[in-house]
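INPUT
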Amino acid sequence: MTDEIIRAAKILKQGGLVAFPTETVYGLGACGFDKNAVARIFEVKKRPHFDPLILHIDDTKWLEKIASHVPSKARELTETFWPGPLTIVLPKLPVVPDIVTAGLPSTAVRMPANDIALGLIKKACCPIAAPSANTFGRISPTRAVHVKEQLGKNIETIIDGGPCSVGIESTIVSFTTNTPMLLRPGGLEKEEIEKIIGPLIVPQKEKLSSLSPGRCEQHYSPVTPLLLCTSTEEISKEQKSGLLSFTPIDREKVPSNVVSTEILSSKGDLREAACNLFAAMRRLDSLGLDIIYALPIPSTGLGMAINDRLSRASAKRAAQKLNA
Ligand code: AMP
Ligand code: MG
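OUTPUT
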């Protein structure tokens, strides 16, 4: 274990905040049993208190301490996919403070597949409550430098573990109803989960915000308005534009007012695309563009999670800009 992890764990034990790498995105962590430290996460991120946090654990032994019941299907998933980009929601025990769960009777928990994260949790001797280490509603960080830019001044330390290998948030499955429910598509494909435990309920968009507070319509947003389009023909010729494309695109089809194009995967691989998504959005967002266009992405496998992020990134802002 490195000195940096030992020092960061000490900060957590003393009620401080530590940004750390996971395989999904960088997290902003506090000791999950320390109400005051968790309250600071909400302050620093400007995150509304109705939006619950995920507890990160290094050992399934923690489940008995924080959850009142672990259904057998949940166990099957943890045995198959942990450590990994899967979060499960279980009925909580009183030891989990209400501020972590936004007052819900359930808690979200996952075991990250990242040695720094696992080492930090082990050394801190408590589950780490951690949302993504960015200002609420903005693009999630997949590099330490992204965290430094937004939150660097307000937190005790950032552990740099290099780029995140998955690059998109965890898939969330709730076990608070008889049939498990997909609350958020993410870094583990829905199809992979269903191979193990059968069909998941996918709640309608309108019901999501009550089932999973924080799944806001607008989220993951660049400052620049982002618009989903079906082809390059929909690109307005008047605005300084950026383009986000899944695969390489014929230059001739791209109008000259598109000053930068980001290709998410040169070989059409959804995993690679998910991994590149947030960094590509940030690069486009740094160019002072009028608008960013995003071309369609297949909705199978990790495409479901990518499309979820893109549709939230595009919500409202693009409409506001176009109507302005
Ligand atoms: P983030 O930390 O930004 O990855 O977001 C975590 C998300 O997990 C929240 O926005 C909720 O949508 C979801 N979540 C966390 N805890 C619960 C819970 N107890 N019940 C339902 N959803 C939850
Ligand atoms: Mg987040």
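end of record. The chain has two domains: 2-207, 226-323.
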